[in-house]
């Protein structure tokens, strides 16, 4: 597929003229249509002038690496990527689009567009527009970037402030899921990781966010009342406890028709088995190939820096996939009373 883009001259006040290109617009439009994102809403969310101002300001301060910002509506993230990542996206785009369309429950980050910005005489800056895994009104109390590796996978600031993005070694808690939730999640993680393996991709992460529900005194009182009523099954005003992942968690009283909402449950994510936590999950950084640069990086870390070969993030795609899946499986716990015993009848 030719890596060509549609050119747009984009004047930015006090910043000079930029050339703005959109790449493979028809393919990306297929993803947006599949997910119900109209062309108008996408263009209104992506404000090139606003992004350029931030981009220019950031680079003028001498910062390096990728830069990202949120769209005004918070539905999208705009992120700069390396030329090698743009090339990888170009190569996997047709199969990526098909996979996303065929797998609506995929955890892979949704990429809605690839663009480039270029000021006269300067190199191109590639930008992707992608989904926001934490697009919620709920507060994200803790968040982690999980790869399955352990060499240099901790963040000192996370110890002081749990809201700072942590890494593998900082994660000390587990997701509390029902057995069915665990099976569904692991099935999707395995499928998504296998897809990335087939495309020669490694170094991706599981982005995991925790929201902890706080119980008010009223809710605690209602729980106590519920426990008392359940001891007397003949009570005509017996309360029932309703919870689903599709709607609000609530206490209802069949006698008084009373409804107390604990919290509005988002459509995206998982409610914990004990109904006290909510998890936001996505697979990010899906554009890194297992190429010569990564192979050289691995060799340098092993032979010159004497780092643990098994604990490095740089791994061949099959090893990376297996370790990643194992790590995700290891951060899930299922309540003992929800585990299903499997009995095999051998004739």
Compact summary:
The protein is an alpha+beta fold and 347 residues long. Helices cover 33% and strands 24% of the residues.
What can you see in these coordinates?
The chain is α+β, with helices and mostly antiparallel strands and 347 residues long. It is built from nine helices and 16 strands. The protein has helices at 25-34, 39-45, 48-60, 83-102, 156-160, 179-198, 217-230, 292-303, 317-330; strands at residues 5-12, 16-23, 68-70, 76-81, 111-119, 125-131, 142-146, 166-167, 175-176, 205-212, 239-242, 249-253, 258-263, 270-271, 277-284, 332-333. A six-stranded antiparallel β-sheet has the order 1-2-5-6-4-3. Helix 1 (25-34) crosses helix 4 (83-102) and helix 6 packs antiparallel against helix 9. The protein is globular.
Brief descriptors of the model:
five-stranded mixed β-sheet, 16 strands, disordered C terminus, six-stranded antiparallel β-sheet, alpha+beta, 347 residues, 9 helices
Topology overview:
Layout: E1 5-12, E2 16-23, H1 25-34, H2 39-45, H3 48-60, E3 68-70, E4 76-81, H4 83-102, E5 111-119, E6 125-131, E7 142-146, H5 156-160, E8 166-167, E9 175-176, H6 179-198, E10 205-212, H7 217-230, E11 239-242, E12 249-253, E13 258-263, E14 270-271, E15 277-284, H8 292-303, H9 317-330, E16 332-333
Parallel strand pairs: 7-8, 9-16
Antiparallel strand pairs: 1-2, 2-5, 3-4, 4-6, 5-6, 7-10, 10-15, 11-12, 12-13, 14-15
Helix pairs in contact: 1-4, 6-9
């Amino acid at each position: 597929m030719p890596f060509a883009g549609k050119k747009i001259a984009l004047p930015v006040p006090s910043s000079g003229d930029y050339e703005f290109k959109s790449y493979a617009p028809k393919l990306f439009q297929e993803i947006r249509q599949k997910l119900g994102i109209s062309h108008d809403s996408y263009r209104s969310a992506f404000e090139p002038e606003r992004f350029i101002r931030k981009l220019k300001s950031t680079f003028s301060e001498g910062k390096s690496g990728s830069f990202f910002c949120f769209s005004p509506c918070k539905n999208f993230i705009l992120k700069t990527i390396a030329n090698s990542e743009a090339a990888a996206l170009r190569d996997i785009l047709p199969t990526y689009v098909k996979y996303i369309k065929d797998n609506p429950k995929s955890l892979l980050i949704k990429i809605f567009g690839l663009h480039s910005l270029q000021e006269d005489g300067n190199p191109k800056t590639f930008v992707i527009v992608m989904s926001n895994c934490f697009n919620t009104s709920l507060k994200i109390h803790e968040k982690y970037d999980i790869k399955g590796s352990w060499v240099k996978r901790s963040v000192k600031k996370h110890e002081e402030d749990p809201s700072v993005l942590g890494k593998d070694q900082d994660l000390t808690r587990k997701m509390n899921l029902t057995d069915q939730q665990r099976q569904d999640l692991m099935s999707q993680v395995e499928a998504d990781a296998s897809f990335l393996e087939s495309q020669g991709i490694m170094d991706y992460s599981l982005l995991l966010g925790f929201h902890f529900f706080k119980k008010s005194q009223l809710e605690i009182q209602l729980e106590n009342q519920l426990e008392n009523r359940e001891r007397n099954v003949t009570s005509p005003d017996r309360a029932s406890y309703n919870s689903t992942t599709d709607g609000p968690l609530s206490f209802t009283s069949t006698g008084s028709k009373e409804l107390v909402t604990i919290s509005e449950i988002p459509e995206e994510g998982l409610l914990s088995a004990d109904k006290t936590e909510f998890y936001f999950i996505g697979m990010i950084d899906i554009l890194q190939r297992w190429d010569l640069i990564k192979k050289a990086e691995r060799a340098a870390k092993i032979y010159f820096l004497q780092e643990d070969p098994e604990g490095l993030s740089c791994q061949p795609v099959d090893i990376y996939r297996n370790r990643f899946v194992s790590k995700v499986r290891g951060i899930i716990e299922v309540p003992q009373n929800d585990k299903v015993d499997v009995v095999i009848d051998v004739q």
